[in-house]
């Protein structure tokens, strides 16, 4: 009898504890809004951006209810980037409401800017239980060398210069050896009648292609309109002409001719090379940088108008 009484007391205590916990569990469930999320995603308009450059992030949410606001949306964390402005657009659609959050984000240091998933915690009436609806994450490359990568590049550049110097010295010694062998063999040959041959004319140096700022402005306008390969080639040809180099010259030749006298022209040359021969995902951004540099070079008075890169 004593054992049965103890068992009944234990069961009664368990039921009392369960009843006491039920209100707290119910209030925790009621803390989540009743919301059926149909879609939640976010995307960036650029895959790569320069340091301190700005890119756009669009967050799209579609819910099955009609709502005027969506305060339940929680943005993810922003690593190596920061929000500088935002705008929310609400649209009533058949079967619910669309919310579009438009963010302007500024990248910081070279490396990678990451945005973790945005999410909504809600009590989904379709499933009958609380749910966390999450979007995808975003990763955007921030161009430029990180400190360690820059140091490794400097070491590699020094090693390449050392190898070039060793190759030049070895080439000089090899040339001296060949000349010595030829000189000795020449002295041992019997003398023969010399045959006079008219010297061939030296090849004419490549002429510098004439170019003017007006030609550069027209070519840049043409490239801005259609972004075709022939239009880009014409812009590069005029940039090389303004640099003072002729046909067949390389970007290194053009930059060496320009020196430090015009940084806008140097920036336009480098960006044009990246737009023509860089990775495919980076060529559009390089074209924008080229147009901005050309505008600063050819139209310094209109540098703040942003007419070509708009």
Explain how this protein is built.
There is one protein chain. Among the domains are: 37-142, Immunoglobulin-like (Sandwich), CATH 2.60.40.740; 213-302, no CATH class. The chain is 46% helix and 22% strand. It has helices at residues 2-30, 147-188, 213-226, 229-243, 251-258, 263-277, 280-298; strands spanning 37-44, 48-49, 54-63, 78-79, 81-93, 96-107, 111-115, 119-124, 129-134, 138-142. The termini are far apart. Residues 192-205 have low confidence and may be disordered.
Features:
four-stranded antiparallel beta sheet; 310 residues; four-stranded mixed beta sheet; alpha+beta; single chain; 46% helix; Immunoglobulin-like
CATH topology of the domain at 37-142: Immunoglobulin-like
| Helical proportion, percent range | 40-55%
- Between the first and last Cα atoms, what is the distance in angstroms? 90 Å
Largest sheet, spatial ordering of strands? 1-3-6-5
CATH architecture of the domain at 37-142: Sandwich
Q: Name the overall outline.
A: elongated
CATH C-level category of the domain at 37-142? Mainly Beta
User: What is the alpha-carbon Rg in Å?
Assistant: 35 Å
Q: How many DSSP E strands? A: 10
Major sheet: size, sense and barrel closure? 4 strands, antiparallel
Number of helices: 7
- Rounded mean pLDDT score: 82
């Amino acid at each position: 009898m004593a054992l049965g009484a103890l068992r009944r007391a234990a069961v009664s205590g368990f039921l009392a504890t369960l009843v006491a916990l039920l209100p707290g569990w119910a209030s925790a469930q009621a803390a989540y809004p009743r919301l059926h999320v149909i879609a939640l995603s976010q995307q960036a308009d650029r895959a790569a951006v320069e340091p301190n450059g700005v890119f756009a992030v669009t967050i799209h949410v579609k819910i099955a209810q009609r709502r005027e606001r969506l305060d339940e949306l929680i943005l993810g964390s922003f690593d190596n980037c920061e929000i500088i402005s935002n705008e929310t657009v609400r649209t009533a659609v058949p079967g619910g409401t669309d919310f579009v959050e438009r963010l302007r984000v500024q990248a910081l240091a070279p490396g990678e800017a990451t945005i973790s998933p945005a999410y909504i915690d809600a009590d989904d009436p379709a499933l009958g239980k609380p749910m966390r609806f999450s979007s995808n994450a975003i990763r955007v490359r921030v161009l430029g060398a990180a400190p360690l990568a820059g140091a490794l590049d400097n070491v590699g550049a020094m090693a390449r210069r050392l190898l070039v110097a060793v190759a030049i010295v070895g080439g000089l010694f090899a040339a001296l050896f060949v000349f010595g062998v030829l000189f000795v063999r020449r002295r041992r040959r019997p003398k023969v009648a010399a045959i006079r041959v008219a010297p061939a004319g030296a090849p004419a140096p490549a002429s510098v292609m004439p170019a003017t700022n007006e030609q550069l402005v027209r070519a840049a306008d043409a490239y801005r309109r259609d972004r075709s390969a022939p239009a880009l080639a014409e812009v590069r040809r005029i940039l090389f002409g303004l640099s003072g180099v002729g046909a067949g010259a390389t970007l290194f030749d053009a930059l060496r001719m320009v020196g430090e006298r015009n940084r806008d022209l140097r920036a336009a040359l480098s960006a044009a090379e990246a737009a023509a021969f860089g990775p495919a995902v980076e060529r559009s951004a390089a074209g924008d940088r080229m147009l901005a540099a050309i505008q600063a070079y050819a139209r310094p008075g209109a540098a703040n108008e942003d007419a070509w890169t708009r």
